[in-house]
Amino acid sequence: MTNPLQKFFRQPAIYISLPSAGKFWPAGTIDLSQDGQLGVMPMTARDELTLKTPDALMSGQSVVDVIKSCIPQIKDPWQMPAMDIDYVLVAIRVASYGEQMEMTTKCPKCSEDSPYEIELPALLDGIRCPDFSNPLNFDGMSVFLKPQTYRQVNDASQRMYQEQRVLTTVNNSDMSEDEKLRQFKQLFEQLTATTLAAVGSHVSHITTEEGDVLDPRHIGEFLDNAPKKIYSAVEEFIKTVNDVNKIPEASIQCGDCDNQFTVPVQFDYSAFFG
After folding, report:
1. 267: pLDDT confidence band, cut at 50, 70 and 90?
2. Which of these, 49, 80, 133, 264, has the minimum number of CB atoms within 10 Å of its CB?
3. Is the pLDDT of residue 84 over 80?
């Protein structure tokens, strides 16, 4: 029997076109309409509670669950290319709470709270798809790059967080200096491996005279043994890509002392969604 209340179920509040335009999404992970648009529905009470579950929020699963709930056309949010992640989450925020977002920071001069407002549609307008069409060319090879997926971004963030937390624990512990040095050496090796893996995850494939190299293990081993100029060029490209969609700082005037200052706009997902 059809629910007589079905006509009152939520409907898309806004429609969006992804910065990636569906590129870099593996087959079967997204269902785009012919015009390339996605309908974005407001969050439910269940979605809000999901974003307040610490374990699910830390693992990234809560973000994935909310995206699937609000944008059913996205079948596997883990495979989202990086430039679409913030775009989709800002769109869900707009569909759920409106186009303005109120935030608060402390004035660096008088230390009083300074509220300010962010126009979220302006953030959406500023998110673009970086150009991945041109490879980095070196003697005898071309390195083709791609955006990270949400899973890769989340996994790298978790590893870095855990390693930094262990580093702080070791630094503040009562263990002997020799043991601290041993632990630090091990941790720095892990941090180096995490950094190399993050750089490698941006490489789509490498073309040589013998053909295309697609195996991530071979690419990772190459980056670990490549001349510094090649690794640095890949790293610089990644930095340039990240800067394309860097959110501009917010300009604020303190209501207590009239001090004018800027603050970076950073989103804590649990706070971002209320």
Report:
1. low
2. 133
3. yes
Cα 125 to Cα 19: distance, rounded to the nearest angstrom = 9
pTM of the model: 0.85
Q: CB of 14 within 8 A of CB of 94? A: yes
Measured from the Cβ of residue 198, the count of other Cβ atoms closer than 10 Å reads 19
Helix (H, G, I), strand (E, B) or coil at 44: coil
Alpha-carbon span 77 to 88, nearest angstrom: 10
The whole-angstrom separation of Cα 180 and Cα 26 is: 44
SS (HEC) of 98-130: CCEEEEEEECCCCCCEEEEEEEHHHHHHHCCCC
Instruction: Characterise 137 by phi-psi region: left (phi > 0), alpha (psi -120 to 50), beta (else).
Output: beta
How far, in Å, CA of 236 to CA of 230, rounded? Answer: 10
Q: Do 68 and 34 meet the contact criterion of CB atoms below 8 Å apart?
A: no
Which has the closest alpha carbon to 265: 251, 248, 245, 253? Answer: 248
The pLDDT mean for the chain works out to 90
The model's pLDDT over 170-226, given as tens digits with 9 standing for 90+, comes to 788 888 888 888 888 888 888 888 888 989 999 999 999 999 999 999 999 999 999
Question: What is the SS3 assignment for 187?
Answer: helix
**Residue 37 DSSP class:** E
Residues 6+ apart with CB under 8 A from 178: none
